[in-house]
Amino acid sequence: MELTVLNETSSDSSGGCSASACGSSNDQLSHLPDAIREKVHNHPCYSEEAHHYFARMHVAVAPACNIQCHYCNRKYDCANESRPGVVSELLTPDQAVKKTKAVAANIPQMTVLGIAGPGDPLANPERTFDTFRRLSAEAPDIKLCVSTNGLALPDCVEELAQHNIDHVTITINCVDPEIGAKIYPWIYWNNRRIRGKKAAKILIEQQQKGLEMLVERGILVKVNSVMIPGVNDEHLKEVSRIVKAKGAFLHNVMPLIAEAEHGTFYGVMGQRGPSNEELMELQDECAGDMNMMRHCRQCRADAVGLLGEDRGDEFTLDKIESMEIDYEAAMQKRALVHQGIAEELAEKEKKRAALAAVKVPSGPTLDNAHFRPVLMAVATAGGGMINQHFGHATEFLIYEASAAGVRFIGHRKVDQFCIGNDTCGEKESALAGSIRALSGCEVVLCSKIGYEPWGLLEEAGIQPNGEHAMEPIEEAIMAVYEEMIATGRLDENTSGNSQMSA
Amino acid sequence: MSLSIIESCVNCWACLDVCPSDAIYEDKPHFMIDAKKCTECEGDFADPQCASICPIEGAILDAAGLALNPPGSLTGIPPEMMDKAMAEIQAR
User: Fold this and answer.
1) Staple partner for B50: which of A277, A303, B15, B32, CB 3.0–4.6 Å?
2) Chain B residues within 8 A of A119 when measuring between CB atoms
3) How far is the C-alpha of B45 from the C-alpha of B3, rounded, in Å?
4) Residue A287 sits in which domain range?
5) Does residue A493 surpass a pLDDT of 70?
6) Which tens digit of pLDDT belongs to each residue from A118-132?
7) What is the CATH number of the domain that holds A477?
8) DSSP assignment, residue A403?
């Protein structure tokens, strides 16, 4: 029987979060030209496989901003929030360099240093480039990247090209000033504040020009877009087409975060964010064959560590002041660690290739191929296993099981981007949040689950499943899918959720 | 003559970088304008630079104590239109 084969193959894939945690990541990068693949293979934000092994950090040296976005609140200091534009501690370039070296020495898996705010890095050119200049010289084994709204980008391309910077992220939410005026109330341009459509037009022109200039110089460009329902949701398909045609190697569509308590214009005015289904549908349309960013965690402008974790507290200013860092020694240790990871990844790749040659390890048998796809959620603490209690999950990984096998769709956070206490405002119960995060899913796999949530999940049409605790994710999902087929749950007209497709 | 920054300032640094007179300095609880240095950008720019980049309505006052960015000037929505704009946005 097929399952036996699956379990055998998975039992010898050891350590870390196996590829199964994030879908069949072995071909996520395969569509890229070799030169680009070489640049991104150990970048945790661009490779689903890499994000389990390599860490990133942001240094918050760029507080000023030259535009206003309706989804941003310029009061950025909140220790309990996890979202872009929020930091706890601003750093001078000097402190940023010290912090980067401290993190690099203590977390040797850290390969990437980004400057992402809390304002716009290129609206703080001195602080941003001073940091980059020193890091290129003093920590040459760290990749540098920067994100920007694009307004000042054309003026900065020359300087960016001079440093060790191989990735730039531009946030492009529109290519139509009419739509832009609903997202950006004003920009600061040539020493004046410009408003409305005129402002949006200038911003859009600068973004597109900057994108073209970067591509010309061979610097990788990723485009981020914030999906704002009723404003740019349909429009983002056109944005996607244009930026890819101009040479952006990746388009990452992120959901609007607009909680009233964050104090953003959209939050206060009651603009809604997209539903899980709306986001997934648009991401599928914009991603094409590139689903590399589904694990994006929309992290803070001072995040430290692996994606989804933040070890910033270990590297506060007062703590790094007292650290003595021998960076030469650290670089040697880092090189060893990176080499070890590379070997482990290569080993896994080899196993996968061998496996693929023998048998396609997923997908139900042929006569079942007509059954509809099913979304399933998984509670995992890592390692590619179903190993987390339902009640402990702060996020779920979402997979689609279908005739084509098991596909990673994305992650969904439970706690609405606020890990704080009740002082942030009214918080719904964690359980209600969990159930809402699972909309569209028919099954949730976890190691254990309490009596109360079990009942509520069933009421919501989601079948809890604790039978596959400590099993590898993809294999368990396929087993459940086959069981659903066998027990007739996927026969037509039996399911309330049958319209969900990814 | 001098502009001034009041307590609604969020310390975002934007004004400090654009002041042609180096009149703005970091302070607690918020940034301040040195009245002796501030020229209100006269002779340098058509508009006072700090008030042209400040993201907070009402945070920068002119010499007479009036807000250079009054309510509604930065959101683009005049206060009397607020309810209508909110209804429109919530219908999305």
Assistant:
1) B15
2) 12-14
3) 15
4) 31-321
5) no
6) 899 999 999 999 999
7) 3.30.420.130
8) T
